[in-house]
Structure formats: C-alpha cells, structure tokens
Amino acid sequence: MKGIELKEIRKKLGITQKELAKMLNVNARTIQKWENGEVEIRKNNAFMIRERIKGAFDGGVNINTNHQAGDNIVGGRESELLDLIRKKDEQIAEKDKQIETLLEIIKNK
C-alpha cells in the first residue's frame, strides 16, 4: 500500500489524519508522513490498515467520530472501498509470489 492510496481511502471514508491515526493507534504525524511519501508504509502496517478498515465495515463500526452511531460514513461506497482493498491485497500477493520465485532462482544458482 502506498501513501497516496491511504490518503485516497481516508478521504473516501471522510476522516481526518488525526482520526485515522487514532483508529490505527499511531501518531497523526505518522499518517502525514505515509501520505506524503516521506516514509514508506511497512508491510505489517499496511496489513493492519487493511484489517482495521475492513473490520470497521464488517462489524458495522462507525470509524468517523464526527458522525452519530448508525450514520453511513462513506455514502454507500463501502463495496467500492472493499474492492479497492481486495485489489491491493491481490497485487501484494502477486508481488510476494514474484519475490519468492526470484529467491528460488537465486538459491538454485
């Protein structure tokens, strides 16, 4: 997951960097650095981000603190966001397979 993708998802969710930071249990400056490309999002953090966002939709949790419980936080775009997350998961899985293949080739030389 790239910072620009995180920013896009966050904006679609209608939440601030501070709110996302609270949701992910990180500093707001960390979110800012990720989104601006100052720091790369580590694989474990990307996984955590996807899981927290998916969990918010799966569990019906309202992650936007500016809304009342039960509000639709993304204006009916939950499936669009989940599709985006699934697509990124698939891309990461494909990259992981490519890396494993390359490592096997190197190992066998």
Can you put this structure into words, describing what you see?
By secondary structure, the protein is an all-alpha fold. The protein has one domain (3-108). 69% of the residues lie in helices and 0% in strands. The chain contains five helices and no strands. The chain has helices at residues 3-13, 17-24, 28-36, 43-58, 78-108. It starts with a helix and ends with a helix. Residues 59-75 have low confidence and may be disordered.
Sequence-ordered SSE layout with sheet pairings:
Blueprint: H1 3-13, H2 17-24, H3 28-36, H4 43-58, H5 78-108
Helix pairs in contact: 1-3, 2-3
Name its key features.
109 residues, mainly alpha
**In terms of structural class, how would the helical and strand content be classed?**
mainly alpha
Number of strands: 0
Please, how many domains? 1
Taking pLDDT < 50 over at least 5 consecutive residues as the criterion, the unreliable ranges are 59-75
- Percent of residues in helices comes to 55-70%
Instruction: Please state roughly what percent of the residues sit in beta strands, choosing from under 5%, 5-15%, 15-25%, 25-35%, 35-45% or over 45%.
Output: under 5%
Q: Report the principal-axis shape.
A: elongated
State the helix count: 5
Describe the biggest sheet?
none
What is the arithmetic mean of pLDDT? 75
Oligomer: single chain
Radius of gyration: 16 Å
Distance between the termini: 32 Å
Q: What string, H for helix and E for strand, traces the elements in order? A: HHHHH
